[in-house]
Design a protein that fits this description.
By secondary structure, the chain is α/β, with parallel strands linked by helices. It contains six helices and seven strands. Bound molecules: glycinamide ribonucleotide. The site of glycinamide ribonucleotide (GAR) has 14 residues, from α1, β5 and α6.
C-alpha cells in the first residue's frame, strides 16, 4: 500500500441508499477532514446516494455494470483522471477483481454490516438474529481480492436485544457505520 500524506482525493462507490456516502460527505466538509471527495460512482442509475452527491455538487457518474472488465477499465481511467488516492466502498454491491485492486494500487476501504470475520456477504442481520448472537456490529476493512476478508481497520459492536428484528438491528448497525467510517479513514491515513 502506498504511503499517504495530506488531504486525499477520494472516490466513493455506491449502489443504493447512500447513507454512508452522506456521512462521508459530512465528514469531508469538516475542517479537520483528511479527505476531499472528488468523485462518486454508482452502478445503479436510480441510487438515492446520487442525489446527495448532486446536492453537494460532487462530480458523480452512473456506470452501467454489464461486464466486469469494461466496467473496471472505465473506472480505472476515471480514477486516474481525477487523481484519486483512496476509494471508499459505501454500500457498493459489486465485487472488484484482483486485477482492478492491483492496478489501482492505492487503498480501497469497505464498510460491512457485521463483526467480520463473521457473516461475510449478504443478509448479515438475519443471520446474526437467527444464530441468536448477543452482539452484532460494523466493520471497516481494506479490500482485497477475497470477499470481506481484508485487514480490519475498525470495528464496533452493538447489543442484539431479544426484541430486535432485522429492521431494528439494521438501523442500529447503520448508526454505528456512520460513526466508524470517518474514524477508520483517519486511522488508516494516520497510521504510517
Ligand atoms: C450498509 O449497511 C453497508 O454496510 C452495506 O450496505 C449498506 C448500504 O447502506 N454494505 C454491504 O453489505 C457490502 N457488502 P447505505 O447505502 O445507506 O450506505
Amino acid at each position: 500500500m502506498e504511503k499517504l500524506s495530506g488531504k486525499k482525493n477520494t472516490a466513493v462507490f455506491i449502489s443504493g441508499r447512500g447513507s454512508n456516502l452522506r456521512s462521508l460527505i459530512k465528514y469531508s466538509k469538516t475542517k479537520k477532514s483528511l479527505i476531499r471527495i472528488v468523485l462518486v460512482v454508482s452502478n445503479n442509475s436510480t441510487a438515492k446516494g446520487l442525489d446527495y452527491a448532486n446536492k453537494s455538487k460532487i462530480n458523480n457518474i452512473f456506470i452501467k455494470y454489464s461486464k466486469r472488465k469494461s466496467f473496471e477499465d472505465r473506472l480505472l481511467k476515471l480514477l486516474k483522471r481525477n487523481n484519486v488516492d483512496l476509494i471508499c466502498l459505501a454500500g457498493f454491491m459489486k465485487i472488484l477483481s484482483g486485477s482492478f485492486i492491483r492496478k489501482f494500487y492505492k487503498p480501497i476501504l469497505n464498510i460491512h454490516p457485521s463483526l467480520l470475520p463473521k457473516y461475510k456477504g449478504l443478509n448479515t442481520h438475519s443471520r446474526a438474529i437467527q444464530n441468536k448472537d448477543r452482539y452484532s456490529g460494523a466493520t471497516v476493512h481494506v479490500v482485497n481480492k477475497k470477499l470481506d476478508s481484508g485487514k480490519i481497520i475498525l470495528q464496533k459492536k452493538v447489543k442484539i436485544l431479544k426484541s430486535d428484528s432485522e429492521k431494528t438491528l439494521e438501523k442500529k448497525v447503520l448508526k454505528i457505520e456512520h460513526k466508524i467510517y470517518p474514524k477508520a479513514i483517519v486511522k488508516l491515513l494516520t497510521s504510517y
